[in-house]
From TrEMBL:
Keyword annotations of the record: Membrane, Transmembrane, Transmembrane helix
Organism per entry: Candidatus Afipia apatlaquensis
Official protein name in the record: Cbb3-type cytochrome c oxidase subunit 3
Pfam families the record matches: FixQ (PF05545)
TM region positions: 16-36
Length: 54
């Protein structure tokens, strides 16, 4: 059976080839940023905001 190149196949190949690794990299960068020790105080303060009484 002969493979037919369609727009859907081309777009799917592009997404899998380029965007998936880019988004995985962005995800890991966000996780590293959130877990970086220097940012701990800022995130701890932000986590207490809903419980703060004005």
């Amino acid at each position: 059976m002969k493979a037919i190149l369609t727009v859907q196949n081309a777009v799917s190949g592009f997404v899998v080839t380029w965007w998936t690794p880019i988004f995985v990299g962005i995800f890991f960068a966000i996780v590293v940023y959130a877990l970086w020790p220097r940012n701990r105080a800022m995130f701890d303060a932000a986590s207490r905001l809903p419980l703060r009484e004005d």
